[in-house]
């Protein structure tokens, strides 16, 4: 008999997945195949357009790929971090 845990089942709907997570003992399943996912819930209500050197855009896109996110979301996170209040600011 194998000591390995079964993989998480595949679901056809979000409702099926929600019910499974709500009721299953997840410690009984192999979760090693999971990947981090970022969710954004805030509505975006403004657009910007800017021209940047192609080399800069390619560098931003490469960094976004490393972070496993769309480059526009990556740019937004960089901007949010740049304007966030700094800790220990005098």
Provide a quick synopsis of the model.
One of its GO terms (biological process) is regulation of DNA-templated transcription. The chain has 90 residues and is an all-alpha fold. It has helices at 14-23, 54-66, 71-83.
Descriptive account of the structure:
The chain has 90 residues and is mainly α. It has 2 domains: 1-34, no CATH class; 45-90. The chain is 40% helix and 0% strand. Pfam families: CopG_antitoxin. One of its GO terms (biological process) is regulation of DNA-templated transcription.
Radius of gyration: 20 Å
Low-confidence stretches: none
Number of strands: 0
Largest sheet: none
Q: Which of globular, elongated, flat, extended, rod-shaped describes the shape? A: elongated
Helix/strand-derived class?
mainly alpha
Order of helices and strands: HHH
- In round numbers, the mean pLDDT is 88
As a percent range, the share of strand residues is under 5%
How many angstroms does the end-to-end distance come to?
63 Å
Number of contiguous helices: 3
Instruction: Estimate the helix proportion, in percent.
Output: 40-55%
Total count of domains: 2
SSE order and pairing:
Blueprint: H1 14-23, H2 54-66, H3 71-83
Task: Please name the defining characteristics of this protein.
90 residues, mainly alpha, CopG_antitoxin, elongated, Ribbon_hlx_hlx
